[in-house]
Specification:
This protein is α+β, with helices and mostly antiparallel strands. The chain has 18 helices and 13 strands.
Length: about 725
């Protein structure tokens, strides 16, 4: 049973997160693989939040902070979640109990109170409210629980508690592939990406971090100012990697030129602490695309090579999820337990990791993240090992990510934004279905090439069997009956003394024909090898590349959800009689972010499908050119002077004659692309998934194991 983490201590509003701070921000992280409500239900029955939180050993007796519900929430009773209406008075016993939940008490009837869970963003403390103006124009300084007039500016006073950033819930359980294999890469968290990314908290309350003057939660600048070097929010004192700019489009402004990353040269290592593992060389190539001061760019690009293992990629992915919650990151390949040192798997893993890091550095925002530059540039292994926990201990960015997005002023039209996301939603779903069909067809194309290899090989054997009068075991006998197998073919006159396919001795013409046909047979064997290699190597690379573009909707589902929810908030913010310029401004920031992500997908789609198609055509051209080369070489043997020279010496046996009794016509199965994270079965009910998954972990009957999903997978 997973234990709930201690609540994160709220950070002071004036503090800024500094890279390299080794102090952990939270003692534990809640496992995304198990719903926080279900876990908390267990702990309520036990009467404590955790083994270490002694002050809250009895939640029913704790005095909470007064708060008020902002929205209706229909909680799951079986998970001890509350059902509240907007405006209900609440008492917050513990603000953060894990994964964005709070422990809250509400009054359900006179003298009857109920304690349970409520999402952190669905209420506000009544200290965040102020009373209406008094008759003398002065406002009462003390907070009033009877007032529901919200503060005009989201900027809080220094003594107000800071908002704890939303926890995206990176997975850290004992079965890291539980989430992907069992649930198709999806999380059991019932919150939408609008909540978990911190976008909802940003839209409703802004961010506590320092902001430029004038005091507002976010500043919209003109397009010209947004791209000017001296206007890049330098007043914030933030690192350059934390500032993100959107140009007209909206489209992300790229700060760092694109570069290429190769993952290569895997090797097996052994550690006394972690046992055996595979290490990969990760090389970044920086090309100089333009001339500088009249100097031609260097012939070879600058390069940096570092050594990384799979767990380092996991750390990179986890840190990116925490620091860049507003963008669509590619999914990380699944962890493997069985056969992870086989040559086929290591090569497949190498390709998956290369495609993963390639998609990360292609993103105009992700490629200059501090954890990415550390991952690719820290050549000292000891230093990189020291930096890993520092990156992992950084707070989840949450609303602060959106607070540091700078975009042109008033560049969003709500109707256009609504139509764009609807079209994008339908388009990505359609692309996913089409590419899935294409992947299936391409698999059959590869199998057809394997069949062509067998056909070319069988044709080669048949030609060789004909001119040597040796029976081909897997085909009808050619030139000799089964009764005559035991006798010498030369005695029967099928071959002469020089090995020619003729009954006459010394027939030079038949010797030339026999030797030329034998070379044709050998050329067909080479053609068969080309078909086999093409299906296994070149076409496998294309098949793998299609995997990366097969699930655009699942990759951008969070962006679509965030965009649609923000549109709803934006319409509320600009509605007459209830308009809020501050909330509308913050909604525009989120919409600029999501629409820039859609534009990023558009640009990457053009690059992806263009590259896949060109590489496929190049591979086919190279393959057929090799085939044509073999066939032309065999054809030239029948022309003078090569054909005339064949009659000068006796025929030598072909190396393929020994295979006629046991021909090589049963090739090994084609290697298939490793399954994508999203290739698993459709999402199953949470209760069933948890019951079967935890049943394996906690032990059970062998019959239960065999019938569970884990039993089927293992």
């Amino acid at each position: 049973m997973a234990t709930l983490p201690r609540a994160n201590k709220p950070a002071p509003s004036s503090s800024i997160l500094v890279f390299g701070d080794p102090r952990p921000q939270s003692e534990t992280q809640f496992d995304v693989g198990i719903n926080s409500s279900a876990a908390w239900a267990e702990h309520l029955e036990r009467g404590s939040l955790s083994d270490d939180d002694r002050e809250f050993h009895d939640p029913l007796e704790q005095e909470g902070q007064p708060a008020r519900a902002l929205y209706d929430f229909e909680g799951k009773v079986e998970f001890r979640e509350l059902i509240v209406k907007a405006g209900d008075e609440l008492e917050v016993i513990k603000e953060e109990v894990g994964d964005g939940w709070s422990l809250v008490r509400t009054t359900v009837a006179p003298g009857e109170r109920e304690t349970g869970l409520l999402p952190r963003t669905y209420y506000t403390f009544t200290s965040d409210f102020i009373s209406a103006p008094t008759s003398d124009g002065q406002r009462r300084k003390e907070a009033s629980s009877s007032s529901i007039t919200p503060r005009g500016s989201p900027t809080r006073k220094p003594e107000t508690l800071a908002i704890v950033p939303q926890n995206t819930g990176e997975w850290r359980n004992v079965l890291p592939s539980f989430r992907q294999s069992l649930l198709g890469g999806k999380s059991l968290n019932r919150f939408s990406a609008f909540v978990t990314s911190g976008a909802e908290e940003w839209v409703l309350k802004g961010c506590d971090e320092p902001v430029p003057e004038p005091t507002s939660s976010h500043q919209r600048l003109s397009t010209e100012d947004s791209i000017a070097e001296d206007n890049r929010l330098n007043r914030l004192g933030l690192g350059e990697a934390d500032r993100h700019f959107v140009d007209s489009g909206p489209v992300w402004q790229s700060k760092v030129p694109q570069f290429q990353v190769l993952v290569h040269s895997p090797s097996k290592r052994t550690s006394s602490l972690s046992g055996a593992y595979t290490i990969y060389s990760v090389t970044s190539l920086f090309h100089s695309a333009i001339e500088e001061d009249g100097v031609e760019p260097p012939l070879s690009p600058a390069r940096i090579t570092v050594q990384r293992r799979f767990s380092h990629f996991v750390a990179l992915h986890t840190a990116l999820l925490k620091r860049l919650p507003g963008i669509a990151l590619p999914p990380l390949p699944e962890k493997q337990y069985a056969g992870r040192f086989s040559a086929d798997f290591v090569e497949a893993r190498r390709g998956d990791l290369e495609r993963y890091i390639g998609r990360v550095v292609r993103h105009p925002i992700a490629r200059y993240a501090e954890v990415v530059t550390s991952f690719l540039g820290c050549e000292n292994d000891a230093e990189w090992t020291r930096l890993i926990p520092q990156h992992l201990s950084m707070l989840v960015a949450g609303p602060s990510f959106f607070a540091h997005v700078l975009h042109p002023a008033f560049n969003i039209d709500v109707d256009e934004a609504t139509e764009s996301v609807d079209r994008f939603d339908n388009y990505t779903r359609g692309v996913g279905k089409s590419v899935q069909g294409l992947r299936s067809v391409f698999g059959r194309v590869r199998e057809a090439r394997l069949e062509m290899s067998k056909a070319e090989r069988l044709l080669s054997y048949s030609l060789l069997s004909m001119i040597t009068s040796q029976r081909l075991s897997s085909a009808p006998a050619t030139g000799i009956s089964e009764e005559e197998e035991g006798s010498s073919s030369r005695v029967k006159g099928l071959m002469n003394e020089e090995g020619a396919w003729c009954w006459r001795e010394g027939c030079e013409d038949c010797l030339k024909l026999t030797k030329a046909t034998q070379k044709t047979s050998e050329a067909l064997q080479s053609v068969a090898d080309l078909y086999d290699d093409h299906a296994r190597r070149t076409q496998l690379a294309t098949h793998e590349a299609l995997k990366g573009v097969a699930h655009p909707y699942l990759s951008y589902e969070g962006i679509i959800e965030t965009h649609q929810s923000t549109i709803s908030r934006y319409k509320d913010a600009i509605r007459e009689g209830n308009s809020s310029e501050e909330m509308a401004s913050r909604c525009e920031t989120v919409l600029n972010t999501t629409m820039a992500e859609m534009e990023t997908y558009h640009a990457q789609k053009l690059e992806d499908f263009g590259c896949i198609t060109k590489e496929h055509l190049d591979g086919e051209i190279a393959f057929y050119e090799q085939v044509l080369g073999k066939l032309r070489s065999a054809r030239r043997v029948f022309e003078s002077p090569q054909y005339d020279e064949l009659g000068n010496t006796p025929r030598q046996p072909s190396r393929y004659e020994r295979e006629l009794e046991n021909p090589n016509l049963v090739p090994t199965a084609l290697p298939q692309p490793c399954p994508h994270v999203y290739d698993s079965a459709p999402m199953r009910p949470v209760s069933v998934a948890i019951q079967e998954g935890m049943g394996i972990l906690l032990g059970g009957s062998s019959a239960a194991v065999r019938t569970s999903v884990f039993g089927k997978l293992w």
